[in-house]
Design goal:
Number of strands of chain B: 15
CATH superfamily of the largest domain in chain B: Response regulator
Number of domains of chain B: 2
Strand content of chain A: under 5%
CATH topology of the largest domain in chain B: Rossmann fold
Structural class of chain B: alpha/beta
Low-confidence stretches of chain A: none
Distance between the termini of chain A: 53 Å
Radius of gyration of chain B: 24 Å
Number of strands of chain A: 2
Oligomer: heterotrimer
Strand order of the largest sheet of chain A: 1-2
Order of helices and strands of chain A: HHHHEEHHHHHHH
Shape of chain A: globular
Number of helices of chain A: 11
Helix content of chain A: over 70%
Largest interface: B-C, 64 and 75 residues
Strand content of chain B: 15-25%
Helix content of chain B: 25-40%
Chains: A mainly alpha, B alpha/beta, C mainly alpha
Distance between the termini of chain B: 89 Å
Largest sheet of chain B: 5 strands, parallel
Mean pLDDT of chain B: 84
Mean pLDDT of chain A: 85
Number of domains of chain A: 1
Largest sheet of chain A: 2 strands, antiparallel
CATH class of the largest domain in chain B: Alpha Beta
Chain lengths: 300, 439, 409
């Protein structure tokens, strides 16, 4: 029995990694309607920027763990800027084109960020620090052992989800962003600058992506391909939970981690990914818009 | 106009007929080496002309993953090779010929490797291939290279089939994974006889070959394998697998894995699971990043095998030479254990070219390589021995242990040499160490 | 179409077929020897392979609008089926190549047809992920040896058939002995691939203009409308998948035969994505576009090399800007992706769309480009986007042109 609980707990740890990246994906889908394949690479790139800053600030020993948090916030801000620029320059022109074109553009961005990262930072993996209060060994919660870092990732993803939820539902700006995503025309008619909302949506999701990357880097090690596998799982998790739903992203991520680990433990680690995706397909058959997704009404 | 329905039917039946006609193709008989394809009407090169060799230049080719793949981390091997060739060129080249290295980027995708290599051979006209990266990538082209008679040298991969059976134009690179695995297995058999072993294996040819080697090394011993976990080469977080290994309660864990997942395993085991089981890992982890990724204290006491010098040995003249070469000719690439390995491969080739003499042909290169005996390159820690039946340059390795964040060799070297020589090690700038001498 | 308008088209087609027929021998002729050689024959064979594969994808994604990220999985399945049949034969009998390839095509087609069933309820990114699942899971399945379920060891041993992690090595393909001296192996392979490719292209063109093709387009544009017009959604959607599987299977089978090696890594996620990029670049829902896409797949390395060669080395700020040869090698991805992005912004209909517009003698592709550029200009507050009419847009009033309609949910 305790093995079962441990399996679930480890699965939750893996899943929290997927969940935090899935949040960024859902956010951008909600605010722009675009499935951003470059999300992982942008997050990875921002994490490298954070790493350069950590190395730079490493010359001084700053109090209050500022050696970590200063690069953290700076990198997240820079990521937001990058996201905004990308939207303005590259995505804006393809908005009116068929949706596949924006997918292609994001795929091009994927390759671009990946290439520049390999060129600038090299392909060899690097260690990345974690914040002080997540450091240290594992916590023994009853019969189960979970690392502090994984708990930290999980807690952060819940925190981000909560903040985003409050932002999108209870602030004027958040509501304006959601409105811009749903009906750009109507927005313009009531005076909401839809274009600016889209830019902000990208900036925000790039920032969330950066946070995800920085949190995850100590676990999977920093390298230009660190987000590659994770991105696909995060996408699957986002779809599983419902692309329109932020809590769905978290739920999907955690579930995916648990299923993958259960399959690995009880069937065999050679088949864990297969089993996880099989489950996703089965779920989609029953609920085509994801577990927490809304049924979309298509007007004829 | 033919009515649509009939047109479609017509086309479909045409297709069927065409297929059946084309099925007259014959299967190649096993074992026959087909002659190099010469198109009707093209010129046959005279015996004076050798592809890729002029009076002033030797053209070499290689395929690596330079982008879009985690394997791009190993592209620095190529930088090490190229830097050494540029160094040799600056001193006049070999027999008056300068060496030029062309690289094809195959993104670690076997389908792309075919295009890249065919272009190198047929359009760029290379003389030989050196140092190609990847198991499945090179498997798509190894027979093509063999058919075309292009010397296929020193692949950056150790699967056994490159040199077993021996093919005239193909020479292996690293000691093969069976050899390494056997050494790891024998170490475990010696120190953990009667105890339990758990395995972590990368789910591809690299991992599976190595695992076979470990099992070979365990033969005849009393070690029980209690768990076997795998992971895909893109999955670097092996928390789940490590957890399952711990559940099986082994006394020692062996991993045939590349540095990031191996380091993840060690880190998770020590920090998260509070588990102090000893680890034995494969030689690809003997690089400076391993201690950084896993944490030096976590990795303390780990055992592996090594056949080359390491970058931290800065008081070794060979390493110093390498650092100087990388500084002058490395085009800004950071030196690493991998660049050192690349240089070693380049040095062996240059030695082979020297042995081949001024009249350079494919045969003379092969003869030149096969005649290398008891020779030490500046970047080598073990001697190079080759012969017409032994196409692996180095078949000797040292055991090595992680102490204070650095991999330190211990014990005598273990030799699997099929052409045994008198030299048992190398030091300094290619100085051989003979049996009986102190190190 | 009138006979007069038809004549140049037919002549052009005949000329093209003639060139394709003698292509492997062209380089022995004096003029062509300058830029053609045996390597080009190999590339042309590759082009033929990709053409077959991409036709299937375009039928599915371009014509019937179902985004599939798992096409590479179908190709891989076809390749393995053909490889196993060629290698091991069937029930002790040797299987000729053509039968193996056809079987691969048909079986992959049937599998894809069945896989289309779950896809009926999914669309957009959800469908994309479901198809992605195929290509993600396939390598593990191909390498599978045994699994244990609830304590029991079940020996599935797929790896025994597929060669597992080492892949499958086939015998090298050879031309029939009776034709020795007339064709080399490579030329023979060219014909083995090109002839099916041409025929299957003709089939696809025929299909696109037939009832089935029209049904596909109707489904892509408006599912509800299509249903109202009497199109059996389920049947046609599944048929689209099945056809894509047929093409993928034949293409994959021929791939395995010409390469004589298949590994679980040969067709993976990135390849699947690249194929999608290729057909969008070439032009969705267009046979000519698929040809362009196949050219892209076969020649992308050369194109990237050519563009790389044009970029000069700038010696400022070494380390921050590319300066050395080593740098350029590593930045190939940028040389690949930046022109890609720029191209898709300025030519949303792909290359085929450009050709069509130029063919229509409408100068509006430049106007269309201006629309894209105003996105840039708004960055510095110079211009605000104003929509103009062009041959591709429908209603003329802004209110009616709702960009939401272009986005499938």
């Amino acid at each position: 029995m305790s093995e079962f609980i441990q399996t679930v707990a480890t699965g939750l740890s893996m899943g929290s990694v997927y969940a935090v990246v899935a949040l960024a994906i859902v956010l951008i889908y909600r605010s722009t309607g675009v499935a951003n394949f470059a999300q992982g690479e942008m997050a990875m790139f921002s994490t490298f920027i954070a790493w350069s800053l950590v190395v730079y600030f490493g010359q001084w020993s700053l109090p209050l763990d500022m050696n970590y948090w200063l690069p953290f916030f700076m990198a997240v801000t820079i990521a937001g800027l990058i996201g905004a620029i990308v939207e303005r320059v590259v995505l804006r022109p393809v908005e009116e084109a068929p949706v596949l074109n924006s997918v292609i553009v994001t795929l091009g961005l994927f390759t671009l960020f990946n290439t520049v990262a390999i060129w600038r930072y090299g392909g060899i993996a690097k260690p990345f620090p974690s914040p002080s209060f997540f450091k240290g060994g594992a916590l023994d919660v009853g019969p189960v052992v979970i690392s502090r870092l994984n708990i930290g990732v999980f807690a952060m993803s819940l925190l981000i989800m909560l903040l985003l939820y409050l932002f999108l539902n209870y602030t004027k700006l958040g509501l304006a962003m959601r409105a811009a995503a749903e009906n750009r025309l109507a927005c313009r008619m009531v005076g909401i600058p839809a274009g600016r909302m889209l830019t902000m949506g990208w900036a925000l999701s790039a920032a969330v992506g950066a946070v995800a990357g920085i949190l995850v880097a100590p676990i999977v090690f920093l390298s230009p391909n660190m987000m590659f596998a994770t991105l696909i799982f995060a996408f699957a998790a986002a779809v599983l939970g419902g692309l329109q739903s932020l809590p769905g992203a978290i739920l999907g991520g955690l579930l995916l981690g648990i299923i993958q680990n259960m399959a690995g433990t009880y069937i065999g680690s050679e088949i864990d990914i297969t089993a996880a995706f099989l489950v996703i397909v089965l779920v989609l058959l029953v609920k085509p818009n994801g577990l927490l997704g809304r049924r979309v009404v298509r007007r004829v | 106009m033919v009515p649509r329905f009939r047109r479609g039917f017509l086309l479909a039946s045409l297709l069927l007929v065409a297929f059946l006609l084309l099925s007259c193709s014959e299967k190649d008989e096993e074992g026959e080496t087909p002659a190099a394809t010469q198109p009707a009407g093209a010129e046959t090169p005279t015996t004076q002309e050798v592809q890729g060799v002029t009076d002033t230049e030797i053209l070499l080719g290689s395929h690596f993953a330079l982008s879009q793949s985690p394997a791009a981390a190993y592209a620095v091997i190529m930088d090490g090779m190229r830097a050494y060739f540029d160094y040799v060129n600056s001193q006049g080249g070999v027999h008056g010929r300068k060496i030029k290295l062309l690289i094809g980027d195959d993104h670690y995708n076997p389908a792309d490797t075919v295009e890249v290599v065919r272009k190198l051979v047929e359009q760029d006209g290379i003389f030989a291939m050196i140092g190609s990266l990847g198991e499945s990538t090179h498997t798509t082209v190894w027979r093509y290279l063999e058919e075309q008679g292009i010397p296929d040298l020193f692949q950056s991969s150790g699967i056994v089939k490159w040199t077993d059976p021996v093919v005239k134009t193909r020479f292996g690179g690293n000691p093969d994974y069976h050899t390494e695995g056997k050494m790891l297995g024998q170490y475990i058999a010696r120190h953990y006889n009667g105890k339990k072993l758990a395995l972590l294996v990368q789910n591809d040819e690299f991992g599976v070959d190595g695992e076979a080697g470990i099992r070979m090394g365990l033969e005849g011993s009393d070690v029980e394998i209690v768990a076997r976990e795998t992971y895909e080469s893109t999955q670097w977080d092996v928390t789940a697998q490590t957890q399952r290994l711990k559940n099986a309660n082994p006394d020692v864990v062996a991993a045939y894995a590349i540095p990031p997942p191996a380091a993840s395993m060690v880190k998770v085991a020590r920090e998260v699971l509070d588990w102090d089981v000893p680890f034995v890992v494969t030689g690809v982890n003997v690089s400076e990043i391993f201690a950084q990724l896993a944490g030096a204290q976590n990795a303390e006491g780990m055992v592996s095998v090594v056949f080359g010098k390491q970058l931290y040995q800065t008081d070794d003249p060979g390493v110093q030479l390498h650092l100087q070469i990388m500084k002058d000719f490395g085009q800004g690439v950071q030196p690493a254990n991998y660049t050192l390995y690349g240089q070693a491969m380049a040095e062996i080739l240059v030695k082979g070219l020297e042995n081949a003499g001024p009249d350079l042909t494919r045969e003379s290169l092969v003869d030149g390589l096969e005649s290398i005996r008891d020779w030490c390159c500046t970047a080598c820690m073990v001697p190079v021995n080759m012969s017409p039946t032994d196409h692996r340059p180095m078949e000797m390795e040292f055991y090595i242990r992680m102490e204070n964040g650095q991999w330190i060799p211990f014990d005598d070297p273990v030799s699997f040499e099929s052409t045994p020589g008198k030299v048992i090690g190398c030091k300094g700038l290619g100085e051989p160490i003979y049996a009986g001498e102190g190190q | 179409m009138s006979r007069a308008a038809l004549r140049p088209r037919v002549l052009g087609l005949i000329l093209l077929l003639a060139v394709l027929a003698v292509f492997p021998y062209l380089y022995t002729w004096p003029f062509f020897g300058g830029f053609l050689d045996e390597f080009r024959t190999f590339q042309a064979t590759r082009f033929g392979l990709w053409l077959i594969i991409l036709l299937g994808l375009n039928l599915l994604t371009g014509y019937s609008g179902q985004i599939s990220l798992g096409h590479a999985a179908l190709v891989a399945i076809g390749a393995y089926v053909a490889a196993v049949l060629i290698n091991d034969g069937f029930m002790g009998q040797n299987v000729p190549v053509a039968v193996a390839v056809l079987t691969a095509g048909v079986s992959t087609g049937m599998l894809a047809f069945l896989l289309g069933a779950p896809a009926l309820r999914l669309s957009g990114p959800y469908l994309a992920i479901a198809t992605l699942a195929m290509i993600i899971a396939l390598p593990q399945i191909l390498k599978l040896e045994s699994i244990s379920f609830a304590g029991q060891d079940i020996n599935l041993d797929v790896a025994h058939w597929t060669g597992g992690v080492q892949g499958l090595l086939l015998d090298r393909p050879k031309s029939p002995g009776s034709l020795d001296g007339l064709v080399t192996d490579r030329q023979w392979l060219y014909y083995e691939v090109m002839v099916p490719a041409i025929i299957m292209t003709a089939m696809a063109a025929n299909l696109a203009r037939s009832r089935v093709g029209r049904a596909f387009i109707a489904i892509r544009d408006t599912e509800v409308g299509a249903e109202h017009m009497g199109v059996n959604l389920a049947l046609y959607k599944m048929t689209a998948f099945g056809l894509s599987g047929l093409y993928a299977g034949v293409g994959g089978g021929l791939f395995a035969y010409t390469e004589a090696f298949m590994s679980p890594d040969s067709f993976e996620v990135i390849k699947s994505i690249t194929m999608l990029v290729a057909i969008v670049l070439g032009g969705l829902a267009s046979i000519v576009g698929t040809v362009f896409g196949a050219l892209f797949m076969a020649f992308q390395n050369e194109i990237v090399d050519a563009i790389s060669g044009l970029i000069p080395s700038i010696d400022i700020l070494k380390g921050y800007l590319p300066t050395t040869k080593s740098d350029f090698e590593r930045l190939r991805g940028a040389v690949y992706s930046v022109p890609l992005i720029i191209f898709i912004i300025f030519a949303p209909g792909g290359l085929a769309g450009l050709v069509r517009q130029v063919g229509n003698s409408a100068p509006t592709w430049w106007q269309g480009a201006r629309l894209r550029v105003t996105g840039w200009a708004s960055l510095v507050g110079l211009a605000t986007p104003r929509r103009r009419t062009g041959p591709d847009s429908g209603p003329t009033t802004e209110a009616a042109h709702d960009p939401e309609e272009d986005k499938r949910d």
